[in-house]
Amino acid sequence: MAPKKVLDPENINENIKKLVYAVRGELYIRASELQKEGKKIIFTNVGNPHALGQKPLTFPRQVVALCQAPFLMDDLNVDILFPADAIARAKHYLSYTSGGLGAYSDSRGLPGIRKDVADFIMRRDGYPSDPELIFLTDGASKGVTHLLNILIRNENDGVLCPIPQYPLYSATIQLVGGTLVPYYLSEEAGWGLDVKEMRSQVLEARKKGITVRGLVFINPGNPTGQCLSEANLRELIQFCYEEHIVLLADEVYQQNIYQDERPFISAKKVLMDMGPPYSNNVELASFHTVSKGYWGECGQRGAYFELTNMHPKTVDELYKVASIALSPNVPGQIFVGLMVNPPKPGDISYPKFAEESKAILDSLRRRAHMMTDGFNSCRNVTCNFTEGAMYSFPKIKLPAAAIAAAKRAGKAPDVFYCLKLLEATGISTVPGSGFGQKEGTFHVRTTILPSEDDIPEVMRMFKTFNEDFMAQYEGPQSRL
Amino acid sequence: MAPKKVLDPENINENIKKLVYAVRGELYIRASELQKEGKKIIFTNVGNPHALGQKPLTFPRQVVALCQAPFLMDDLNVDILFPADAIARAKHYLSYTSGGLGAYSDSRGLPGIRKDVADFIMRRDGYPSDPELIFLTDGASKGVTHLLNILIRNENDGVLCPIPQYPLYSATIQLVGGTLVPYYLSEEAGWGLDVKEMRSQVLEARKKGITVRGLVFINPGNPTGQCLSEANLRELIQFCYEEHIVLLADEVYQQNIYQDERPFISAKKVLMDMGPPYSNNVELASFHTVSKGYWGECGQRGAYFELTNMHPKTVDELYKVASIALSPNVPGQIFVGLMVNPPKPGDISYPKFAEESKAILDSLRRRAHMMTDGFNSCRNVTCNFTEGAMYSFPKIKLPAAAIAAAKRAGKAPDVFYCLKLLEATGISTVPGSGFGQKEGTFHVRTTILPSEDDIPEVMRMFKTFNEDFMAQYEGPQSRL
Question: What is the pLDDT of residues A41-96, one digit of tens each?
Fold first, then answer.
């Protein structure tokens, strides 16, 4: 017999073994296998717009291409292929670097880009922002990891997370050895946050010896799509003040809003509006990225976080952690710069940029409606409207016979349903259990990202599958 | 009094507080301050070639620029600015993606690039490599973090690291809560590895209840610049086999070789050459990057690691950890693809590519000699030749009066020396204590990356400073 490996699965870091990352979990792996076998797969498991056909915005790509190949700007013919404002912008960003895109930047990112981010936040919120408290990161997940890592000292430190939640949070809390303290969102109340629920979960956690030190919220919601009201955010901040909790604001979908009643409002702005003792005490980290919005530049890994009310020495400690990886990728930093300072009216590239971004956002808004309406037309399926973000999270009322069949197959009922959906249609979703859901309820998360032309067919395939599934486990539609 | 912060520096993760990252430590921070005040700083603290004027290779930048702006390839004028083989290569890499550079790839990286890496390893070593065991990462540090994270379960798990070592290792071992077990390199023996020393350190560690599970080595060495012989690598592998230790091979400088006696040989090749029971048992992870070599594309964050003899389930667990960050940056992956498959003789772009890369390597070789000779011409300074990598690591014999002055200033003697050097000359180095050194010896790490034209002046400034320093603390040069 071969000797046991040093890295035998029995002998590795337990936190890694325990963590679950559903977005790239069993469903994704099965979908990848089917794709290898030649089946056409519609990947709606991750918010990855370009993978489903969204075209990149032209101007930012022109600028970054020129930054990658600055020698083009020494060629007299460069203006045949590039507009003058893209050339000017590329030169501007290169002046932020010492050595172009190939040189490490400061571990927090290029000072010039951090200044541009601070200016953007100032314009957005009406309150000053300090570039020294802005960190650029390789995607927002990296920033979240840094914050959770510094916050969590051991398994008795807890972080409140919404249920359903994006599994980045549960996975990272597990990885760094802390405890997730759930607070349930109310599906009936449009997935709103309920501070009473949070308070009772904190009390419950304390009884178990857990110190709740952080609270994650996602606005607009993932996977739940709700947009939080200002009143709701005020309650949340008051709660964090009273309970001495750091607020982690996942605001990566701030450009993805599909209704007009509740425009995006940042936690920073609400906090500052509230004045002392909130505005000068509540510790806040807010995350934003180029992967979402109308940009969808997921593969570039560009993001930032802003710190508010943090102890200066703690900021230094975060700087030290960021330094281990030396530098976030520099092209991604340029994308962040472009996101916070897009072309303005009067710029050569403005009309095209405005047209492209409006077309994407308008289409996402239509798709949000098409998918919600589609799900609500299906037997045993109900779905809140996607007010923001990129996801639809319908509730599926699974018949008892289906639950029993799932049990026989050794699968969670929603995993069973999603696997059947995948095999029948090629639609790759994530089961609600990957995000958490109230005991006895079952959900499916899809993105709203299939192209607008494809959605009717995707929804038709879903409806047919669902009808067949329900007929198999519940009998023919009684209302027919 | 303001209430104590949740993230008060007293109340954060202890492992973060304890970790030290010298490359971006006190010296770097002081250098940044001086730069802000207008002083000209020569940053030799990090191996960051483009920051010191090295120009990027043209062909890879052309290819990546086209991948960023694929619409250029629909323009009939594209061939005015781009050669045909760059266009063909860009199309080829885009065919590896689903949605271009803006889409997340698989968490291990694009399958096409991983296949190209495996082919490169096969050509380099003469042994097959499996793309499923290759992970692309945002810089090699990210891969090292994954491996140390899965290896270390608690503070009783130890990892052997060379002293002097690159502080990524000490910092990451501290971050994930393990114990660094030092093995000292022998400066007198050209910084060679001594297996007897390792064995005694393992015994020592065991007495303290530490299980040594991993061994890091860096070849060519950082900061020490030595190139390991095949015989030395065989001893190392035999030792890891006998002691049941995973080998972490930092081989990021494999293209940076400045002597002909010991060309680079990979740990994978030596392992496979040794045959069973070594070749089928010793667990190995090997790291490589686009940040070093003649590429120096640090800011792009492109790298890979290859796993050998790992348990398949452990590979799955690593995949899960990589999935938390969803995807390494895709432009960086394209750079890895280009590094492992550069232009070949007969390609349009080959002559230029060959000329550019040869010029860089030839110059680095000359610079390695210039710096070593320069240091050895200084009073109280001795320096082993930089056989490979990008660093010079001279030993400074500090006079007793300087050590006493450092003590009065509350600084380690080598930090004191480096700060004085910085203030006097603007040369930003890293003190040997940041890498570890034998008790009572003092070193300075510089890169050999200042441009060839600048090096004589840099060495002249160093020599003058050093002479003044020694004269101040030891009196005038006695041999004069």
Answer: 998 988 999 999 999 999 999 999 999 999 999 999 999 999 999 999 999 999 99
CA distance B285 to chain A (A): 11
Residues 6+ apart with CB under 8 A from A74: none
Position A479 pLDDT exceeds 60: no
C-beta atoms of A13 and B152 within 8 A: yes
Strands (DSSP E) contained in B203-253 are 211-218, 246-250
| Phi then psi dihedrals of residue A248, to 5 deg | -105, 110
Q: For the residues A329-358, what does the mean pLDDT come to?
A: 98
Each residue's pLDDT tens digit, B387-401: 999 999 999 999 999
Question: How far is it, in rounded angstroms, from Cα B228 to Cα B269?
Answer: 13
What is the distance between the alpha carbons of residues A25 and A39, in angstroms, rounded to a whole number?
19
Residue extents of the structural domains in chain B? 9-39+359-474, 95-340
Q: Output the pLDDT for position A480.
A: 45
CB atoms A324 and B7 under 8 Å: no
CB < 8 Å from B in window 52-71 of A? 52-54, 56, 58, 61-62, 64-66, 68-69, 71
pLDDT grade for A21, boundaries at 50, 70 and 90: confident
R_g over Cα of chain B:
23
Torsion of CA B373, B379, B384, B386, to 10 degrees: -40
Residue B155 contacts residue B181 (beta carbons within 8 Å): no
Cα Rg, chain A, nearest whole Å: 23
Question: Do residues A192 and A232 lie in contact, with contact meaning Cβ atoms separated by under 8 Å?
Answer: yes
Closest CA to A50 of A360, A391, A296: A296
Buried b (16+ CB within 10 A) or exposed e, B297-309: bbbbbbbbbbbbb
Task: Tell me the CATH class for B9-39+359-474.
Answer: alpha beta
Tell me the chain B residues in contact with residue A106 when contact means C-beta distances shorter than 8 Å. Answer: 32
Q: Give the CATH fold of the B95-340 domain.
A: Aspartate Aminotransferase; domain 2 (3.40.640)
Q: For B157, left (φ over 0), alpha (ψ -120 to 50), or beta?
A: beta
pLDDT band at A325 (very low <50, low <70, confident <90, very high): confident
pLDDT tens-digit map of A429-462: 999 999 999 999 999 999 999 999 999 999 999 9
* CATH number 3.90.1150.10 given to A9-39+358-474: yes
**Given an 8 Å threshold on Cβ–Cβ distance, is B244 in contact with A6?**
yes
Beta-bridge partners for A288: A304
**CA–CA separation, A181 vs A184, rounded Å?**
10
Locate the chain B residue with the closest alpha carbon to A302.
Answer: B329
Instruction: State how far the Cα of B472 lies from the Cα of B334, in Å rounded to an integer.
Output: 53
d(CA A212, nearest CA chain B) in Å: 10
Residues from chain A that touch B314, judged by Cβ atoms under 8 A, are 5, 7-9, 12
* Contacts of residue B230, Cβ cutoff 8 Å, sequence gap at least 6: B265, B270
The answer to whether residues A195 and A247 touch, using CB atoms and an 8 Å cutoff, is no
Is A321:A146 a contact under the CB 8 Å cutoff? yes
B2 secondary structure, DSSP code = P
CB of A330 within 8 Å of a chain B CB? The answer is yes
For chain B, which residues score pLDDT lower than 50? 480
Stretch 240-279 of chain B: residues touching chain A, C-beta under 8 Å: 244-246
Task: Tell me the residue ranges of DSSP E strands in B326-415.
Answer: 381-382, 391-392, 395-396
Q: Confidence class of residue A118 from pLDDT cuts 50, 70 and 90?
A: very high
* Mean residue pLDDT across chain A: 95
Q: Which regions of B120-227 does DSSP assign to beta strands (E)?
A: 134-137, 157-163, 179-184, 211-218
In angstroms, the separation between the Cα of residue A471 and the nearest Cα of chain B is: 36
Contact (CB, 8 A) for B408 and B346? no
